Amino acid sequence: MSSTAIPTARGIRGERPFIVFMLVPAFFFLIMFYVYPTLFNLEVSFTDLSLFGLRQGGEWIGIANYVELVTSKDFHRVIFNTVFWLTVVGVAVRIVLGLGLALLLDSKVLDKYRLKTISRVLLLVPWATPPIVAIVSWRWLLNPQLGDINKLLIGLGIVEQPIAFLSEAAWVWPALITIITWNTLPLVALTFLAALQSLPSELLEAAEIDGAGRWQRLRYVILPHLKPAIIVMTLMSTFWTFNNFVYVWLTTAGGPGLYTNVMATEVYIKAFIDGRMGYSSAVGVVMATLMVAFGMIYLRFIAQREFKEVF
Amino acid sequence: MAATAAAPMPRAFRVNTGFSLPGELALVVLTILVLIFLVYPTAWIIVASFKTSATMFSATEFEFTLENYVSLFQTGFARNIFNSLYLCIVAVLISTFVSTIAAYTFSRMRFRGKSMIFGSVLLGQCFPWIILVTPLFILFAKMGLLNNHFSMLFVYTAITIPFSVYLLVGYLEGVPRSLDEAAMIDGCSRFQAIWLIIFPIMLPGIVATATYAFMLCWTEYLFALAFLTKTQLKTMPLALYAFFGEDTSEWGRIMAASALTTAPTLLLFLPLQTRLTSGLAAGSVKQ
After folding, report:
1. B25: containing domain
2. Please, which of A37, A41, A110, A302 could form a disulfide with A115 given CB 3.0 to 4.6 Å?
3. Both B55 and B97 in a single domain?
């Protein structure tokens, strides 16, 4: 009774032209946008191509760009900023606060005081705010003369002189991380909240009957249940943060001096301000290599099981 | 009815939260503080955009004015709004169409190397855009495509495809395969089955995906910064940031432009949040 129209194992071979036809448009864009420029970038990284001499093209200079980069003190600083401040501190703050916020929003207390719906809607506001607008707003909030945060701190008597959060070395990284966290926290919190809601309440009740206190329930019931979500969110947040350009560029442009310069802003500064396209490409290659290495190590040692479940 | 009569207290106040009353109140205060922290920066921008420059930075005074918007439009900002709308809408239409047919293939067809090909599409999600800027700039410069909306359409279509395919495959997995099969047994061709049966069922998912893609393009800054330098071609985020000066910033215009940039994302986002959240959560965290 098998008809050729039914997608049986035999029918599939005949459908190859259909599959190709359906996938070609998407792959045209993906290959032309991601694959080809990435390979081209690798080639440019071995030249001294200049922004101001694109027509003449660049000379092949071998690994000179990479040698310069590895031996440059400024670049060591850039790597430290990217890896430690932007990624490790930034992601850790986001995951911990996201967990706390999800637990708070899941609490029965909010239900009781009718704050549940409103808090979930308001949680989305930072996420719906474009990064550029978030940066504008926070640049004002942190402004030493006009900003509300300094007014509040002075009003409460915590400080006497306004703090220039975005130009004092001691404050600029915490300020940047605050901005990034504010804008990206909702996605993390909502993901954890969704995972929390799939936790069967019987499990928590059973733990309670067995005498588990609040911390024990968190440690032995809730956190193990959230583990896959935490692992996936940590990986995704790391990629997004490590690669992000706009927050650092528009908040401090890498300053004061090069104090907050990160790899993404370094790629841009070298290519479009210093005009050194070849060197910029080499920074990009290092960046991509670091991310691939991180992804592979992470998948190999931490998330193997979780990702088998997802894909 | 008997239960209601037996309980004079309102239902909500009988909930056992596991906290003492001071503990509950502390949590409520904490929640309110957190919500203020989350909403204040965005709310302030919108309120400030309607304040006169004399009262803009005052916490207590408020003088209503539309002058910031009038002044904004005198700079030719309408042109920037048009650029953003045009680029985002056209790119999202192309990307959603291309992603929908690709997602259908990934969800319904079996072919060799499928999971590897699908995995590589997802890699686009984590791809550092910044490293594409330099090579694409060189390529566009050689082709004379800098300061050209055609190249921006290409970029905006390409950046939204990986996420769209990912979300749409998620939605399609929720549509029973027996529907396609039933339609085809009843004599539909595969294209008819897609167009007449699957597409209408998927429409809410497609709308949600397109909305997300629109917001991604609408707020995009990096590629626009690198590839568009002519004022009349710039998108809203670029034009907005140009009002920040080295020494003085035109705060009135900045506030009005920020409010206009936020309005569509806020208005599109809040109604769609449940759909997006469940899609994102279902995709990223398989339970």
Report:
1. 17-68
2. A110
3. no
ipTM for the whole complex:
0.87
SS3 B32: helix
Q: Residue A222 gets which letter from DSSP?
A: I
Cα A279 to its chain centre, rounded Å, is: 25
**Contact call for B226 and A104, based on CB within 8 A:** no
Render pLDDT for B69-116 as a digit per residue (tens, 0 to 9): 998 999 889 999 999 999 999 999 999 999 999 999 998 888 888 888
Task: Say if residue B201 is in the same domain as residue B81.
Answer: yes
For residues B179 and B104, membership in a common domain is answered with: yes
Dist. CA B278–CA A119, nearest whole Å: 17
Chain A CB contacts of B235 below 8 Å: none
> pLDDT by residue (tens digit) across A40-83?
999 999 999 888 888 777 888 989 999 999 999 889 999 999 99
Domain count across chain B: 2
Test A49 with B138 for CB contact under 8 angstroms: yes
Q: How many CA atoms lie within 13 A of A237 on its CB side?
A: 28
Q: Do B131 and A186 touch (CB under 8 A)?
A: no
B interface test, pick of A10, A115, A136, A139 with most B CB neighbours within 10 Å: A136
CATH of domain A69-200+226-310: 1.10.3720.10
A81-114 burial by CB neighbour count: b if 16+ within 10 A, else e? bbbebbbebbbebbbebbbebbbbbbbebbebbe
Residues B40 and B122 in one domain: no
Indicate which of B88, B123, B131, B280 best probes the interface with A, i.e. most A CBs within 10 Å of its own CB. B131
Do B27 and A104 make contact, defined as CB atoms within 8 angstroms? yes
Instruction: Record the pTM.
Output: 0.87
- Which residue among B15, B31, B270 sits closest to A115, beta carbon to beta carbon? B31
Judge whether A207 and A217 are in contact, CB under 8 Å: yes
| A–B CB contacts, 8 A cutoff, strictly below | 290
